[in-house]
Amino acid sequence: MFKPLICTALVLASGFAFAQDAGGDREARRAEWQARAEARFAEADKDRDGRLDRVEVQAYGERMARHFDRIDANRDGELERAEIADARRQAMQGKRHHRMRAMHAYQRGLFKGMDDDGNGAISRAELGDKMPRWAENFAAIDADQDGEISAGELKAHRQAMRAAHRAQREG
User: Fold this and answer.
1) Which residues contact 67 (CB under 8 A, 6 or more apart)?
2) What is the pLDDT of residue 148?
């Protein structure tokens, strides 16, 4: 029981550390990835018409050939750059969704593990220094100011933080 929890915590912590470290180079990596993708597309596009048919897609990659019909949004038998980009964007959104679900499941497990008295809430004493961010923001998370964080309060706080980050990115 305890070993999987530790392994999960280590995996998530390393992912969070990588995400924080990678922020500065994101645009450079994106430009590099786009250049490589453009070169692969140009190499596969033998007739230079800006689209890939089923035969050309074989040269692009087995995975794309396997999902040709799903990627071909307009059903014209050829893949355009925009269709490939849309398919990639959808795949990335799916991966992001799965990562978020895993993180929330991990936090639910942590929450249960920290609730020593089993009352469905975590007091400052139960929290201790186990989750520094939660401890740091305890007053903000504890919406009803009863000295304990409930699962509902934690969820509402997460949603508020997510909305604030989204607004910050958009504005």
Assistant:
1) 87
2) 93
User: Which residues of the chain carry a pLDDT beneath 70?
Assistant: 1-24, 171
CA-to-CA dists, residue 88 to 34, 39, 80, 96, angstroms: 12, 16, 13, 12
Measured distance CA(76)–CA(99) in Å, rounded: 34
What pLDDT score does 162 carry?
87
User: Which of 72, 74, 48, 46 has the alpha carbon at shortest distance from 60?
Assistant: 46
Residue written as token pair 């019909």: 69
Q: How far is CA 159 from CA 16, 112, 155, 163, in A?
A: 18, 20, 6, 6
Total-model pTM: 0.44
- β-bridge partners, 51: 80
Phi-psi region of 72 (alpha: psi -120 to 50; beta: other; left: phi over 0): beta
What length is written for the chain? 171
Handedness of CA 20, 25, 31, 34 (dihedral sign): negative
